[in-house]
Design brief:
It contains 18 helices and 11 strands. By secondary structure, the chain is α/β, with parallel strands linked by helices. It folds into 3 domains: 2-217, MFS general substrate transporter like domains (Growth Hormone, Chain: A, Up-down Bundle); 222-255, no CATH class; 259-497, Vaccinia Virus protein VP39 (Rossmann fold, 3-Layer(aba) Sandwich).
Length: 500
C-alpha cells in the first residue's frame, strides 16, 4: 500500500506541473510576451501551492478521505481549465482575472496533495523514508512532465486534450486510493462513484476536444478556421472567408491572401534590386514560403536557403494544396534548401556567405523573438553577407508602433550597418515598415522582375518618404541584455488595442 501511494506521488507531480505548463503556454498563445506570462503564471501557481501547504495542517481528521476529495477536485478543475480558458478568451472581458483565479485554485489544491500524502504515509514508513521517497517521486514526476510536454503532449495531443487527459489521471488516483483504503474511509463507495463520474466527464471532454477547440477558435476568429495545429513553438490557425485565406500564429494575423503580395513584394524586391548580384539568397523566418516565392521570381537567383524554427510550418506550406497554390510551390523548388532551426544559433554555426538576405520574423512581441532584433543578431548576420550584399528586416508598423520601428533602425546602425528605412501600405495591417541593411549607403534601382502587382518604378520613391506622424523619433538600440524593443512594442500595441 505505501508503494501504491508513492506511485500516486509520481502521477500527481506530473499532473501538477502539466497544469502549470498548460496555463503558461495558453496565456502566451493568447496574450503574447511569453516570458511575462510564464513568469506570472508560475509565480502565482507556486505561491498558491504555498497557501495549500499552509492550509494542510487544518485538515486534522479523515486524511485519506480528504486526499481523495482533493484529487477529484484537482482532476475536475485542472482537467477542464484549458478548455474553459480557451473558450472564455474571446467572451470574457476580464480574461486575466479568470486565468489567475484558475491558476491559484489549482495551485492551492496541488499544494495540499504532498503534505496530505506525507501525513498518510508517516504511520506506514519511517519519517526519513517518507520524506526521501515522496520528494524523489515528486521530482521524477516533474522531470517526466517537463519532457513529455514539449516533445509529445503539445504536438501530438494539443493543449485542450492534454488538460482533459491529466485531469483523468488525477481522478484515477482518487479512484485508486478510495478503493485501496475503502476499509478506512467512510462513504468510500460514494467517493469512487464521484471519481468515476469525473473520469467519464473528462473522457467525454477529451473525445470532443477538437469540437471544443473549433468552438473557441470560431469565437476567436471572425472567419471560419479550416486548419489548426499546436506545435512546441506556436499555435497555427488558417482561416478562410470566400477566397481570402488568413494565417494566424498565436492568434496574431500573419497574412491575408488578398493583400499579402503588397507586403512580400515590398519586403523582397528592394533588397534584391540593391544587391550587387543576388545569386545566393538567405531567408530567415518566412516559413510560409511567400517571401521565397518573390525571391524565386529573380532569374539570377541560383540558390535559396530558408531557416525557420517550426518544421510544422514549412511542412504545411510545402504540402497543403491551398498553401502551395499561394506560395507557388516555392518550398519544393529545386533551388530551395529548407533548414528547421533557431536562426540565431544557425548563424553562429554556419560559415555560408550570401548575396542578399531577407529577414521575415514575427513582430518582437516577446523576448524569444526580440533576440532576433538585437545588435548581437545583426552583427552575426554581417559575417554572412558577401561584398555588395544587402539585407532587409520586416520592422513592424512605423505608424502604430513608431518608437519600436525607429528602435530597430537604431539597432541596425549600432550593429555597423547603413540603414535605409522604408514602408508600404498593406490593407490588412495598415502602414508597415522595413529597414534595408547594407555595408555602404545604397540606393534602390527600379530593377524588378515582371509580373509584380504592387511594386514598380513609379511606386518605389514613395516607399522612402515618411509623413510627420511616422517620422524618426529618438531611440536607443535594442541589445540582447536589455530587450528594450519588446517593451516598446508591447506598450505601443497595447495602447492601440485598448484604445488609449
Amino acid at each position: 500500500m505505501p508503494w501504491a501511494l508513492l506511485a500516486s506521488t509520481f502521477v500527481i507531480a506530473t499532473c501538477g506541473l502539466v497544469y502549470e505548463l498548460l496555463a503558461g503556454t495558453l496565456a502566451s498563445y493568447l496574450l503574447g510576451d511569453s516570458v511575462t506570462q510564464f513568469s506570472t503564471v508560475i509565480g502565482t501557481y507556486l505561491f498558491s501551492m504555498g497557501i495549500g501547504a499552509f492550509l494542510s495542517p487544518w485538515i486534522s481528521r479523515g486524511l485519506v478521505r480528504r486526499f481523495v476529495e482533493v484529487e477529484i477536485l484537482v482532476g475536475l478543475v485542472g482537467g477542464c481549465s484549458t478548455a474553459l480558458l480557451f473558450v472564455a478568451f474571446p467572451m470574457v472581458a476580464s480574461f486575466r482575472f479568470l486565468l489567475y483565479v484558475l491558476v491559484a485554485l489549482i495551485g492551492i489544491l496541488v499544494g495540499l496533495e504532498i503534505p496530505l500524502l506525507m501525513r498518510i504515509l508517516k504511520d506506514r514508513l519511517e519519517f526519513k523514508d517518507v520524506v526521501a521517497r515522496v520528494l524523489t517521486m515528486d521530482y521524477v514526476g516533474a522531470l517526466a512532465a517537463s519532457l513529455l510536454f514539449p516533445l509529445f503532449l503539445v504536438p501530438k495531443l494539443g493543449l485542450v486534450r492534454t488538460g482533459f487527459l491529466f485531469g483523468m489521471a488525477n481522478a484515477a488516483v482518487a479512484l485508486w486510493t478510495a478503493r485501496l483504503f475503502r476499509a478506512e474511509i467512510r462513504g468510500a463507495r460514494l467517493l469512487q462513484v464521484q471519481a468515476a463520474l469525473v473520469i467519464a466527464l473528462l473522457g467525454v471532454g477529451m473525445f470532443f476536444s477538437q469540437e471544443i477547440t473549433n468552438l473557441a477558435e470560431g469565437n476567436l476568429f471572425s472567419d471560419e478556421p479550416i486548419l489548426s495545429r499546436s506545435t512546441p513553438y506556436q499555435r497555427i490557425v488558417l482561416t478562410r472567408r470566400q477566397d481570402d485565406l488568413r494565417l494566424f500564429l498565436n492568434a496574431h494575423l500573419q497574412f491575408s491572401s488578398r493583400d499579402e503580395y503588397r507586403y512580400h513584394e515590398a519586403l523582397v524586391h528592394p533588397a534584391l534590386a540593391a544587391s550587387a548580384c543576388p545569386r545566393r539568397v538567405l531567408i530567415l523566418g518566412g516559413g510560409d514560403g511567400l517571401a521565397a516565392r518573390e525571391v524565386l521570381r529573380h532569374p539570377e537567383v541560383a540558390s535559396v536557403t530558408l531557416v525557420d524554427l517550426d518544421p510544422e510550418m514549412t511542412r504545411l506550406f510545402s504540402s497543403h494544396p491551398m498553401l502551395t497554390a499561394l506560395n507557388g510551390g516555392a518550398l519544393t523548388d529545386p533551388r530551395m534548401t529548407v533548414v528547421n532551426g533557431d536562426a540565431f544559433l544557425w548563424l553562429e554555426r554556419s560559415d555560408a556567405l550570401f548575396d542578399a538576405a531577407i529577414i521575415d520574423f514575427p513582430d518582437p512581441s516577446n523576448y524569444s523573438v526580440g533576440k532576433l532584433f538585437t545588435t548581437s543578431f545583426y552583427r552575426l548576420l554581417h559575417h554572412h553577407l558577401a561584398p555588395g550584399a544587402c539585407a532587409v528586416v520586416q520592422s513592424t508598423s512605423p505608424l502604430f508602433a513608431r518608437r519600436a520601428y525607429w528602435c530597430i533602425v537604431e539597432t541596425v546602425k549600432a550593429a555597423g550597418f547603413q540603414a535605409l528605412p522604408y514602408h508600404a501600405y498593406v490593407p490588412s495591417f495598415g502602414e508597415w515598415g522595413y529597414v534595408l541593411l547594407s555595408e555602404k549607403a545604397v540606393t534602390v534601382p527600379p530593377r524588378f522582375p515582371e509580373g509584380l502587382r504592387f511594386l514598380n518604378a513609379d511606386v518605389l520613391p514613395s516607399l522612402f518618404s515618411f509623413s510627420p506622424d511616422m517620422g524618426p523619433v529618438p531611440s536607443e538600440p535594442n541589445r540582447l541584455d536589455n530587450q528594450l524593443l519588446v517593451r516598446l512594442y508591447e506598450d505601443e500595441w497595447r495602447k492601440i488595442t485598448e484604445g488609449e
